[in-house]
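Hi V.,

Quick status before I head out on leave. The structure for the redesign project is tokenized and pasted below; the design run finished overnight.
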């Protein structure tokens, strides 16, 4: 086999000899080497400050760098995060980019630091760092009689 004139293309000449046939069948098999990377448009998401009674939304884009379709998903997402669309699961077509909304809804007032892991169909991990500060609002209203 040899590397074809174009980068990332392999050329493999083949010869098949069939019993009872004088002429062998010759042909060439070509293979294109492609990446299996998925790529976020940012390495970190900062949700900023958020009350424990509110939600904050941030958008990220995920791109399939391959020339083949790739399945992906976000398993083990923390309870304070929702991913839209499709709960963060799907298939990206070749070179396709998909925009996701990450919705942060904290239940505990504290600094949050966590990773969202996007896992590809061939079990590769693509991490996205996230951070936020959740707080109790300074004023709470109550109903009195």
């Amino acid at each position: 086999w040899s590397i074809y004139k174009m980068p990332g293309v392999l050329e493999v000449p083949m010869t098949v000899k069939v019993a009872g046939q004088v002429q062998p069948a010759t042909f060439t098999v070509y293979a294109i080497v492609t990446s299996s990377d998925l790529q976020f448009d940012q390495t970190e998401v900062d949700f900023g400050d958020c009350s424990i009674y509110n939600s904050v939304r941030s958008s990220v884009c995920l791109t399939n760098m391959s020339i083949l379709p790739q399945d992906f998903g976000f398993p083990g997402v923390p309870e304070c995060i929702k991913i839209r669309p499709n709960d963060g699961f799907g298939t990206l077509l070749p070179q396709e980019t998909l925009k996701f909304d990450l919705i942060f809804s904290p239940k505990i007032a504290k600094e949050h630091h966590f990773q969202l892991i996007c896992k590809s169909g061939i079990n590769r991990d693509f991490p996205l760092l996230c951070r936020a500060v959740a707080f109790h609002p300074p004023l709470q209203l109550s109903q009195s009689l």
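Above is the designed sequence. The domain at 38-135 is CATH 2.60.40.10 (Immunoglobulin-like).

G. will cover questions while I'm gone.

Best,
W.
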